[in-house]
Design brief:
The chain has 187 residues and is α+β, with helices and mostly antiparallel strands. It contains four helices and nine strands, in the order H-H-H-E-E-E-E-E-H-E-E-E-E. Strands 1, 2, 3, 4, 5, 6 and 9 form a seven-stranded antiparallel β-sheet that branches. A two-stranded antiparallel ribbon has the order 7-8.
C-alpha cells in the first residue's frame, strides 16, 4: 500500500516526477556510455581496387608530352607512367587500407605547382582515399621509396576541375599531372 501512495504522490508532484525522470535519464545515458565503451570498435576498410584504365587517347597524349619533355618513364598497364627514383627497403603497401605517410609535390608539365606538403611536414592518408594513379603506383615502392608519377586525367581528376575553398580552379578539368612522392612510412 505504501508503494501505491508513493506512486500517486510522485505523479501529482511534478517537481518530484521531474527529478525522478532526470535520475532515470542520467542512468540510461551512463549505461549507454559504459556499454559503448565495452563494444569493440572494429572499423572495417571497405575500399576496393579500381579497375580504371586510361583511354588510349590519353595514354598517347601522355607519351607525346613525355617525349617532347625528354622524359623517359615506365608505362603501367593502367595508363600512367612512372620513374622509381629510390625503391626503398622497408615495409610495402599491402592494400588500399594501408596508411601512408609521405611528402609530395604535384605540378603540371609546365612546372606550375598546384599542391605539395609543407617543408618539414608530411601528409598521412589511407591509400584508398587518393586518386587512382596514386593507388596503383605507390605499391610499386617501399617505405623510404621515392617515385615520380605522370598521370593522365582518367587516373587523376578527370573532367572535374579541382577548386580551392574560395572556388578558384587549382587543377583544370582533363589535366595531365606530375607528382614526386617520397613515402616515409607505411602501416
Amino acid at each position: 500500500m505504501q508503494h501505491i501512495t508513493n506512486f500517486f504522490a510522485l505523479i501529482f508532484n511534478p517537481k518530484k516526477l521531474l527529478m525522478m525522470m532526470k535520475k532515470i535519464f542520467s542512468g540510461l545515458v551512463l549505461s549507454s556510455l559504459v556499454i559503448a565503451g565495452c563494444v569493440k570498435n572494429d572499423h572495417k576498410c571497405s575500399y576496393t581496387d579500381s579497375t580504371a584504365t586510361a583511354p588510349a587517347s590519353e595514354i598517347d597524349s601522355l607519351k607525346t608530352i613525355l617525349q617532347d619533355s625528354g622524359i623517359t618513364a615506365i608505362q603501367n598497364p593502367a595508363g600512367f607512367f612512372y620513374t622509381i627514383n629510390q625503391q626503398g627497403s622497408g615495409t610495402s603497401v599491402t592494400n588500399l587500407c594501408s596508411n601512408i605517410t609521405a611528402t609530395y609535390k604535384g605540378h603540371f608539365f609546365n612546372g606550375n605547382i598546384f599542391d605539395s606538403t609543407l617543408a618539414g611536414q608530411a601528409a598521412t592518408f589511407q591509400l584508398g582515399q587518393v586518386i587512382v594513379g596514386w593507388q596503383k603506383s605507390l605499391p610499386l615502392i617501399n617505405k623510404d621509396g621515392d617515385i615520380t608519377l605522370y598521370i593522365p586525367p582518367a587516373l587523376a581528376y578527370g573532367a572535374t576541375p579541382r577548386k580551392d575553398n574560395a572556388g578558384n580552379v587549382i587543377i583544370p578539368a582533363n589535366s595531365y599531372l606530375v607528382f614526386r612522392v617520397h613515402v616515409l612510412d607505411i602501416q
